[in-house]
Structures are given as structure tokens and as C-alpha cells.
């Protein structure tokens, strides 16, 4: 089982869109997927018509109770709650505030162990609920947009991850509880704009090896359609007959295969 969290300090970079399309790509390839909707805006909860007033993620944090709701073959979701953001204050007084999700997972491993992937969609922040999700992750995917902000996001996110790892050490062993690796994926890349070129140029100069340029996702209208119609980009493009759509489909399949390879290591 691999746990992958989509997180970024910035909104609108494509977390929800990529979480949805990765989930759909994985189930199309016979994998079993659990989505945890950790954004109080609940985009994925609504997309899968999975809203629950009880035993949603809010109740998981408060009472350790959660319903894993199957929405289609091989795909289940722990729904979000619009109250999720109110947890911040109540969690602040708990000493284990960043590790409630980790404890829940340990206590309910029988219910989740058969999933090949757990994909988590976060609200754009680095607060307690998001930290809980990062704490249970093998990989954190952080998307970067081709704006000035996009590149700054890498530095900001990286320093927050570092700090979180340092804060979360086991006092006895001095090892961090957090072993998530961060993968930065440039998204919404247009070929002929200076901001896209600048982002790619600066990422190429990045010596940390954290950005893999085989994972660059282009800006394409089909991503907008996918969340609006609850259909993956692969299914939308498959139904189109023209060569351009088929070429785009092939291109996106390669990128998603690379992402899956990367997070399965
Ligand atoms: N590669 C892309 N090409 C075109 N539009 C995209 C792409 N990725 C995301 N979008 C669009 O950008 C908007 C924000 O995406 P969303 O996934 O909601 O971001 P986030 O979850 O990070 O706030 C949505 O309208 C989505 O359809
Ligand atoms: Mg979102």
C-alpha cells in the first residue's frame, strides 16, 4: 500500500484535478484506491456524490469514527466535511495533534490494508489537518504553476517540510516520524509562454533532483472538462476520434505512467 498526498501552499494549482485523474487512471488499471478528501471544500466528495453528515473525516479526527464509502468498483472515499477547518482550534491543544491520522490508520489497518493506493486531496495550506496527512504519506505530490508564485512554492513547501520533519522526531531514537518524499510536478505548462519557459528553466537548474522533467503536465482544456463531467481525461479523449486527441491521450498516459512508477518505488 502506498499513501500519496496532494499538497501545496497555493490553491488552484491542480491538486484536486490530478488526484481525481490519478485515482481514475489507477482503477482503470485494476488497482484498488481509497481517496481521503482532506479539503473542507469537498470537491472530490461532491464529484463522487459521497457527502455524509456523519462519520466523515471530521468525525474521524474527533471520535476516531469514519465510514469508508465505496463509490464504484475498486474506488472508495472517506468524505470530507465542511467543518474540517474548524478542527484547527480543537486540535491545537492536543499533544499528538499531528499524528491522529497515523493512529487511526494503525487502529484500522484491517479496513485499509487491501487498498493498493491511498490518495489524499488537501486544502491549500500547511496546517494541522494537512500535516496529519503528510505524516501518513510515502509521497507528497506538490504541483507547481508557471507563475512567479509557482517556483516560490517549491522553496516555501520545501522549508515547511524540513521544519515538520525536524519537529516530529522520536525523542528516543532521534528519527523523524515523517518519511514522506516530496515530488514536485510542474502543471499547466504552455509551450509558448515566457512564464512556462522560465519555470522549466529554473527547474532545470534545480540541483536537488526533486523535479523530474518527465512529469511535466501541459495546460489542456480536457483537464477542466474532466472534473466538471466526473470523467477522467483518458476516458474523455478515448471517445474523441481525431488524431490530436489520441496524441494528447498517449502523451498524458506516459506522464501518468511515470508518476505511478515514481510513487511505487
Ligand atoms: N493541466 C491543466 N490544464 C488545464 N487546466 C487545469 C490543469 N490542471 C488544473 N486545471 C484547472 O485549474 C483549476 C484549478 O484546479 P484544481 O484541481 O481545482 O486546483 P487545486 O485543487 O489545487 O485548488 C481547475 O479549473 C482545473 O480544471
Ligand atoms: Mg482542490
Topology summary:
Layout: E1 2-6, H1 15-28, E2 33-38, H2 43-47, H3 57-63, E3 69-72, E4 75-78, H4 87-92, H5 100-107, H6 109-112, E5 117-122, H7 128-135, E6 139-144, H8 148-167, E7 181-186, H9 194-205, H10 221-229, H11 233-238, H12 243-263
Parallel strand pairs: 1-5, 1-6, 2-4, 2-5, 6-7
Antiparallel strand pairs: 3-4
Helix pairs in contact: 1-10
Bound molecules: adenosine-5'-diphosphate and magnesium ion.
Adenosine-5'-diphosphate (ADP) is lined by residues 11-17, 124, 187-188, 217, 219-220, 223-224, 227.
**Strand segment tally:** 7
> Averaging pLDDT over every residue, what do you get?
93
Strand order of the main beta sheet, please? 3-4-2-5-1-6-7
Contiguous low-pLDDT stretches (5 residues minimum) are: none
- The class by helix and strand makeup works out as alpha/beta
What is the name of the CATH architecture? 3-Layer(aba) Sandwich
Provide the β-strand percentage band.
Answer: 5-15%
Name given to the CATH homologous superfamily: P-loop containing nucleotide triphosphate hydrolases
Report the bound ligands by name, code or SMILES: adenosine-5'-diphosphate, magnesium ion
Describe what you observe in this structure.
The protein is α/β, with parallel strands linked by helices and 265 residues long. Helix content is 45%, strand content 14%. The protein has one domain (2-263): P-loop containing nucleotide triphosphate hydrolases (Rossmann fold, 3-Layer(aba) Sandwich). It has helices spanning 15-28, 43-47, 57-63, 87-92, 100-107, 109-112, 128-135, 148-167, 194-205, 221-229, 233-238, 243-263, and strands at residues 2-6, 33-38, 69-72, 75-78, 117-122, 139-144, 181-186. The chain has a seven-stranded mixed beta sheet with strand order 3-4-2-5-1-6-7, with helices on both faces. Strand 3 (69-72) and strand 4 form a beta hairpin. Helix 1 crosses helix 10. The site of magnesium ion has 4 residues, from helix 1. The site of magnesium ion (MG) has 4 residues, from helix 1.
Amino acid at each position: 500500500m502506498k499513501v500519496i498526498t496532494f499538497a501545496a501552499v497555493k490553491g488552484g494549482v491542480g491538486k484536486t484535478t490530478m488526484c481525481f485523474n490519478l485515482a481514475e487512471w489507477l482503477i482503470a488499471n485494476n488497482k484498488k484506491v481509497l481517496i481521503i478528501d482532506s479539503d473542507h471544500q469537498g470537491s472530490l466528495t461532491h464529484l463522487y456524490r459521497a457527502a455524509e453528515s456523519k462519520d466523515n473525516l471530521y468525525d474521524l479526527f474527533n471520535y476516531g469514527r469514519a465510514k469508508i464509502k465505496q463509490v464504484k468498483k475498486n474506488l472508495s472515499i472517506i468524505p470530507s466535511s465542511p467543518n474540517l477547518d474548524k478542527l484547527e482550534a480543537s486540535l491545537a491543544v492536543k499533544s499528538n495533534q499531528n499524528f491522529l491520522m497515523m493512529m487511526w490508520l494503525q487502529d484500522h489497518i484491517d479496513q485499509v490494508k487491501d487498498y493498493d493506493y491511498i490518495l489524499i486531496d488537501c486544502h491549500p495550506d500547511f496546517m494541522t489537518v494537512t500535516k496529519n496527512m503528510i505524516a501518513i504519506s510515502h509521497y507528497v505530490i506538490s504541483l507547481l504553476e508557471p507563475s512567479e508564485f509557482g517556483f516560490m512554492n517549491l522553496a516555501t513547501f520545501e522549508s515547511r517540510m524540513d521544519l515538520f520533519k525536524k519537529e516530529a522526531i522520536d525523542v528516543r531514537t532521534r528519527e523523524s516520524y515523517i518519511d514522506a518524499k516530496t515530488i514536485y510536478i510542474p502543471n499547466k505548462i504552455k509551450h509558448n509562454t515566457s512564464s512556462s519557459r522560465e519555470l522549466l528553466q529554473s527547474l532545470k537548474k534545480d540541483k536537488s533532483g526533486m523535479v523530474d522533467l518527465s512529469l511535466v503536465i501541459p495546460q489542456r482544456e480536457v483537464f477542466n472538462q474532466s472534473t466538471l463531467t466526473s470523467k477522467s481525461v483518458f476516458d474523455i479523449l478515448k471517445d474523441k476520434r481525431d488524431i490530436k486527441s489520441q496524441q494528447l491521450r498517449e502523451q498524458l498516459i506516459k506522464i501518468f505512467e511515470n508518476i505511478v512508477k515514481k510513487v511505487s518505488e
